[in-house]
Design goal:
CATH topology of the largest domain: Aconitase, domain 3
Distance between the termini: 34 Å
Number of helices: 20
Number of domains: 3
CATH superfamily of the largest domain: Aconitase, domain 3
Strand order of the largest sheet: 20-21-22-23-26-25-24
Largest sheet: 7 strands, mixed, barrel
Bound molecules: FE3-S4 cluster
Mean pLDDT: 96
Length: 640
Amino acid sequence: MGKNITHKIIEKHLVSGSMVPGEEVGLRIDQTLTQDATGTMAWLQYEAIGIGRVRTDLSVSYVDHNTLQMGFRNPDDHRFLRTVAAKSGAVFSPAGTGICHQLHLENFAKPGATLIGSDSHTPTAGGIGAMAMGAGGLSVALAMAGEAYFIPMPKVVKVELTGELTGWAQGKDVILELLRLLTVKGGVGKVFEYAGPGVASLSVPDRATITNMGAELGATTSIFPSDETTRDFLTKMGRADDWTELVADADAEYDEVVTINLSDLEPMVAQPHMPDQVCKVKDLAGKKIDQVAIGSCTNSSYSDLKNTAQILAGHMTPPETDLMISPGSKQVLKMLSREGLIEPLLDAGARLLECSCGPCIGMGGSPVSAGVSVRTFNRNFEGRSGTQDGQVYLASAQTAAKLALDGEFTDPATWGPAPDRVSLPDDVPSIRDLFVFPPEDGSSVEVLRGPNIVALEDFDKLPETVEAKVLLKVGDNITTDHILPAGAQITALRSNIPAISQYIFSRVDEGFVSRMQEHGKGVILGGENYGQGSSREHAALGPRHLGVKAVVVKSLARIHRANLVNFGILPLLLVDPSDYDRLEEGVDLTIPASEITPGGTVNMVAGNGATVAVTNDLTEKELQIIQAGGLLNAVREGKS
Ligand code: F3S
């Protein structure tokens, strides 16, 4: 039987398990990446493991989220990250160099390599054939320490691409179409592997946009073949030696197949407040637009911004429509500058922002109250823009640039000819010297900490019986942004767990933290897809610090589930989802924790005498980790 690309890579990196979908596999990890918002904690955890030098082929620490240095907290964290990377043998990318995924794609990712990153959009590197997965910071810390990364063996979905993109349709529209078809839950436990004659027509930036937003499907990852297009990209990046061909066997088998005819696609947009609320741009014609933001790890490549400049050249945005642009990397910025493409952006009224996540993570650029913001980003969850009632739409860079000029949604049939598809120049400028490579021997490097760097606390073991009240009941599709909002003030506290925990669920229920402090322990009750969205492990660490012992939900998002396990919180699933309606906030729960077995069912007893059956999808090892009080305890006890 022929093999698909996913199976080829997994087989080569398999250290434990059999490749049966759903069963746990352990993978050797070649590369890791961290970013400052989650990575500062990952590096504190790495230090707590006490291993010395990183044991991966390559680990890179990027600073791209909290680049604003207002007050001592962020600069303290950046200095800590720079020095701990030098001591530990990791590459450091300073603030302003670019967004981790764009930089990693351009400079470090390799076809056929395994990569995990403490950021959910790590699958961007799948655009050149890396098997790249978002993970909790602790899993990344362990991978840096040479430990395997454990995942349930995914199913492999073949996305058969036929036809060719035409007109204004872009890579973004491919993934928006998949989101429309499959929804934000459609990819859970699956790898989306792209194949078919349409692949050759897609550039690497288009492919990377598609794999980036595979995260919004809930997928384990997404991957493209490594072909002549990949070779050309890597050669132009000065990395011809990193290219290897990687294609599925002609008779490869897949668990599922989805077919998309690229020729049928037209500009699309995801409407507030979910990436799968997709419609055609023309269906919104006439709706006023207050703001357009072009950038983020999804659409900030040279081709995106060159097209943007071409569309804007010689025109002005209307005064009611704010336009901001964040290039993905200094390499992109240098190419634009060299080709005289900055001036048309500025002359059109655009604000040029730093090469960083910027508005995508709420670092400035919030829309006006109830404002309509068209963004080229990957997420449009309520409040993530920093404006609680902001109405965020997601579109390609080309669509966003055109709409910025129009000041309202218009029908693409009236837009005239689309700009030509862009390929990279032959002489791409290198930015390699901007990275800080570690010394051969880091033993004399002093790791510098400021008052914002607070060492990790120890967590207790799980008691045999959990007796706690439901202190919060939330609905479906709770995101990690709901659990812990982003934004400058909050994420500046990422290396200080006691301080950041004060913001847990602060935008959902202001009284939650005080109730937790009053009772010292509690349970959260949730609906479907609890914990979707960003990989931030503080959304598990913060609740754990406050004393959350279990989350009882209808279903869980993959990365957040892993984070709950890592920090010793029981992730329990209601056997009968209608029991959700029988449990109210304030009810006392007794959970027989010592009776829980992998995949088994136990009965919780509620204060009103009702019994509620809960199950789990934990492995034996994960259960041991939770019983030990989390993964760090388990590693120290030799149970992982
Ligand atoms: Fe940054 Fe937004 Fe991507 S926060 S890593 S640009 S999803």
